[in-house]
Amino acid sequence: MEVPCVRVPRKEGEETRRELAETDLIDDDYEIAVADGSLYIPVTDPEAVADDLEIVVRGAAERDDQVTPADLLEFDPSYERLGSAALLDEDDSDRADTIANAILESDLPVETVLNKASKVKGETRVRDWELLAGDDTEVVHREYGCEFLLDLSAVYFSPRLATERHRVSQQVTEDERAFDMFAGVGPFVVPFAKRGAEVVGVDVNPDAVEYLEENARRNGVEDRVTAINDDVREVTDEYADWADRVVMNLPHSADEFLESAVQVAGDDCVFHYYDIQHEDDPFGPGERVIREVAEPEYDVTVETRHTVRSYAPHELNVCLDVRLERKNRTA
């Protein structure tokens, strides 16, 4: 069958395979092949592969020795992978236990199985989890060469946004000053810092900020990261006119923080503004409110209108990449 593969010289094959495995991009349904001095590694999402890797489409042999949860059940179960954990969203406890047992008996490298026990709650956006297998809710997640330690019961984290975080981080250049208004455990902050930026990450959740500091250390960027536990509106005075880039990933209420974001913006600043809107006009409300707050002090240019994912029936999670250029720049 024709599938997308990363092609690398054999001498670089193991390192590349390891990097792809850390980001859960290897397609385990197909065999890795060697031909003409190159290694061909099947991948699940070619658009999520780092830009410096070559993608080719070629025939690949299907693996017949990998036991999946679906092989052990009479249906294909739905779950997310986060490091060595599998995350379920099942209302029926018996069905959840059945799926958890199948996951553990399969060949998936999973040690922990968790089932969602509540919706995201409160200002810190955490949820309750039922521990079906494993010791606790703390996991190590890897994406695009970065490692994140986090406790799902104490912080908010979505593995589904890995590709979006990578899209944004690839825009960051060395010596930028970036400000993440809702930083969590650092999934934007850490890759920004690894690209050479100086980054400030703010979050109201003290547990998230502790993990952010730990993740900065784990990835060797603690000297370029400042982590602040506070409401971001209380700290923007200290960083007025400071930022070259601002991340606003709080899609249900980012508009409430736009005045603070504009206060942080320097003379030439890019906002990554996340929103959830109806599919009939997913970008208009965000663009209008940004212009309302930033103009006339800034010229506002929407550089990218990007759909991140479907959020609910007829609702889209979107991102506006918006450049603000101050009309009367400081000397």
TrEMBL record:
InterPro entries: MeTrfase_TRM5/TYW2, SAM-dependent_MTases_sf, TRM5-TYW2-like_MTfase, TRM5/TYW2-like_N, Trm5a/b_N. Signal peptide: none annotated. The keyword tRNA processing applies. One of its GO terms (cellular component) is cytoplasm. PANTHER family: TRNA (GUANINE(37)-N1)-METHYLTRANSFERASE (PTHR23245:SF36), TRNA METHYLTRANSFERASE (PTHR23245). SUPFAM superfamilies: S-adenosyl-L-methionine-dependent methyltransferases. Residues 79-326 form the SAM-dependent methyltransferase TRM5/TYW2-type domain. Transmembrane segments: none annotated. GO terms for biological process: tRNA N1-guanine methylation. Keywords: Cytoplasm, Methyltransferase, S-adenosyl-L-methionine, Transferase, tRNA processing. It comes from Halobiforma nitratireducens JCM 10879. This is SAM-dependent methyltransferase TRM5/TYW2-type domain-containing protein. The keyword Methyltransferase applies. GO terms for molecular function: tRNA methyltransferase activity.
